[in-house]
Amino acid sequence: MGNNSFNGVIGYQAVPGWDACTGFGSIDAAAFIEQLAEVDVAAPGPQPQSPPPVGSGPIVLPKPRSQYPIVRVLATIQTVEADEDVRGVHHHRLLLRDVHVLAIRGADPSIVKGYAFVAIRYGDDEGLQGPIPGLQAGHSIELQGEYIPQNDTYPSVGNPGDPVIHFVHHPIGFVVYEGRTYE
């Protein structure tokens, strides 16, 4: 048990339950962490399938699938590259500029550069249902996906080595272009 008496001044005695000496007592950190882990796993995560429009309330991001943070950004399309087809999987390839973070989970927004590369997968079970019509340089685009910093990327078809916004499709992300949401 114990008490908080000191230097001859009588304090309060610690007792089971709440008391003036210890409140509810000291925490068992290992048990607390275990409880938090169970609650986190048991609770359903937020679903990005129906993204709220910008300015309609708080943005809730899903948990990252990897070590990379989830980011929701608004950007300007700098360049629209030719679509890529690799073994039947199609991608729109875009270079973005004026990238502004709307929300981020898993990192500080300061890691996000003002430019990025994105390959928007479509036409299979993992990507968007189909291509996004009318993608044009100079137009705004909103994206949600994993943010891969420049130090972890490498130059590839269409990407000079810029940071990458990845998984801009279900279950992590989506694209909003010309007022329409693509998931």
The counted number of beta strands is: 8
* Alpha plus pi helix count: 1
* Gap between N and C termini: 58 Å
Main sheet attributes: strand count, strand direction, barrel closure: 5 strands, mixed, barrel
What value does the average pLDDT take? 81
Q: How are the strands of the biggest sheet laid out side by side?
A: 1-3-4-6-5
Classification by helices and strands: mainly beta
Proportion of helical residues: under 10%
Radius of gyration: 24 Å
Series of H and E elements = HEEEEEEEE
Shape estimate: elongated
Beta-strand level of the residues, as a percent range? 25-35%
The unreliable regions are: 40-50
Notes on the protein architecture:
- The longest helix is centred in the first third of the chain and has 14 residues, at 29-42.
- This protein has 183 residues and is mainly beta.
- It has one helix and eight strands.
Brief synopsis:
The protein has 183 residues and is mainly beta. It has one helix at 29-42; strands at 70-80, 84-86, 89-105, 115-122, 140-148, 164-166, 174-177, 180-182.
